[in-house]
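Checklist before submission:
- one chain only
- standard amino acids only
- sequence pasted in full

Submission:
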Amino acid sequence: MKQQVAVITLGVADLSRSRGFYGDGFGWRPVFEAPEIVFYQMNGFVLATFLRDALELDMARAAGPGPGACALAHNVGAKDDVDRALARLTRHGGRLLRAADAPAHGGYRGYVADPDDHAWEIAWNPAWTMDAEGHVTFGT
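Returned file contents:
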């Protein structure tokens, strides 16, 4: 199999509330919207927000009480962008999980949860390259 991810789907309770976080918070624009699902074209894959009950029905599996120890990451181009992004996301329905700081492995990062408690790391890492489309390459 190819080493790639085509779609990441997050179960959400309220599409309108979710759209506020992803649309107004991140500034992302949907490429497709239906009553149960919204798709965002990302840099090389698609992110979907799917009403949780409909997603559980679609995959024939109950999701359980909530997200576990899993985080998605959004890299930014400069250290100061981390704090700005965390502030913007919390203004648009996010909940700060961890204020930005410098981890031992380098860079600068903080964590925010979307309205459905999906964790997002907002990170700047000077050892990673990021092209104009936002594609990140591990190491340099």
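Reviewer check: The helical segments are 15-25, 52-59, 79-91.
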